[in-house]
Each structure stands twice: as structure tokens, then as C-alpha cells.
Amino acid sequence: MSGFLFIIFLIKRKMFKPFIRNYFGFNKQQRNGLLILVCISFILLIIRMTYPYFLNPDKIVIKNLPLIERKLDSSFKSNSSNYKTTSLKKKNKDSLFIFNPNTISFNELILLGLQEKTANIFINYRLKGFVFKRKSDITKVYGISPNFYSKIEPYIYIENTKTITPNNSSKKYEAKAVIKENQIVKIIELNLTDSIQLISIKGIGPIYAKKILKYRAILGGFNSVNQLKEVYGFTEELFNQLKSFFTANPLLIKKIKINQDDFKTINKHPYLSFEITKLIFDWRRKTNINSTNLKDILNDDLLYLKILPYLDFN
User: Fold this and answer.
1) CA–CA separation, 174 and 169 (whole Å)
2) H-type helices in 51-204, by residue range?
3) Were 89 and a residue from 65, 77, 110, 136 both cysteine, which residue would form a disulfide, CB within 3.0 to 4.6 Å?
4) Which residues are 176's β-sheet partners?
């Protein structure tokens, strides 16, 4: 039995070697290629292992971490806030913006360019009950230099100022302060105001101020305070809240010369559509436009009353 198995083993061995040789053997060219591939892999491995020893990297300095002396039991939220404040200070140093010293936050003081220590003194000064009544009161805070004050002075806004004088305005139409029920109510001329004065009114931020001025520009001026309701996003509720703060003088309107201006200038007015402007020019080819035939052209009494203050028929 064992002899038979040995004979089978020899037969299989003779068959197995050719199989191995045919499918797993390499000729001389293949062996040389394999040797070169192994050598290249070995060299790359040596380079990878020794490469770090030939480098001398600069020291890594981690900035803007919270101070070490902060208490260990401080919350993660507090540390995160301090880190964010320091980063904002570095990235947005000396970012000037309109602010009220009686309401400005710690982070906003940092953005203005104050050191963290001075900002803390500022906040503590206010927490003790001090109220900034004049711009110059800011110089009473320890750490605020005269140079820094002169830089931020144009951006300081303190509520309940007694008067507001618009830039480049005549005395005849300057804004006034009216005493009403022991409170100072600021009356602002819509056709002379600027963004700073608009922002000073509670309820009007930079976005609304920009929209009001933009609409005033395309209108040519406000004929009535009620036109504020035509400003995009200006709600009835907001209008009722703020209408007592404004006045509008029709004499300050920039009028359209209906018989002289070109098509583009007339059509730019928000009350005049393309079709109405085209009708006006059709009439102009025949005769001059006046307040009488304009009513016939528009065929809309409400529109006629709205556009009339903006037209010059000369």
C-alpha cells in the first residue's frame, strides 16, 4: 500500500513541477526587472525612514490661546469666547463703526481697537453707573488716549442729543429737537438727512438707512413722510412707530423737466412705467406737456397726484 502511494507521489511531483514552472516561473528578463523593482522599493523605504532626520523645522508657536492664568473651573464657553475676541482683535483691528458708548459690548470695543484691559475698564466704568452724556466723556476712561479719541469721535453716537444739524444743509431746513412729554423727540428732514442721522433713530439700522437714501435718490426727494411706506421692507407697524421723527419739505425735491429730459431720465422715476413714459413722448411730439393734458395721458387720478410734485412743465 505504501509503495503504491509513493508511486502516486512521484507521478504528482513530476506533474506539479511543470505546473509551477509554467505559471509561477520567471525568465531571465523578468527576474532582472523584479530585482530592479525590489531595489527601488528598498531605496524609497530608506529615504522615507531617514528623511525626517535631515529636516530642521522652525519652532511651532501657537498664538491666541486663552491666558494660562485663567481659572481652571472656567467654562468652555467662556474660554471659547475669549479666544474668539482675541482673534477678532487681531484680524479686525481698528475697524471703525458707529457706536453708542452706553450700549457698546466688550467685543465691539475690541473691534474698535481697544486693548482687552482698557475694554474691561470701559465696561466696569459703565457698570458702576456712569452714563456717557457727551462724546468727550469717553476720555474719562483710563487708557483711552487723546489720539484714539480723535480717531473714533466722528463715529460716536449718544442718544437724546439736543440738536441734530445735517451736513451741507441750510439753517432754514436744519433738523430740530422738540420737547414732548418730557422727552426729546428728534425731527429729521428726510430730504437732507444722511445715514448717520437715520441710524440714530431707534428702529432704523444701517440696512433701512441705506434703503431710505436709495429710494430718495431715485424719487428725487420725499414729498411726504408717508412715502416711507414705499421703501422696500418698511412695514406699516414700523412706519407708525417712526413717522413722528421725520418731516419732508417738498421744496427740496429735485424735479423732472417733463418737456426737456430724455426718455431714460423720465422712465427712471419709480412712478412712471415704460408704457406711460412712451405715451408722454408720443404727446411731446405733438405738443408740450402741461398739468392739464398730463391728467389725460395718465388717466389715473391717484398717480397724477403722486407724480405732479416731481414734474417741472417749463
Assistant:
1) 6
2) 76-91, 106-112, 116-127, 146-152, 195-199
3) 110
4) 187
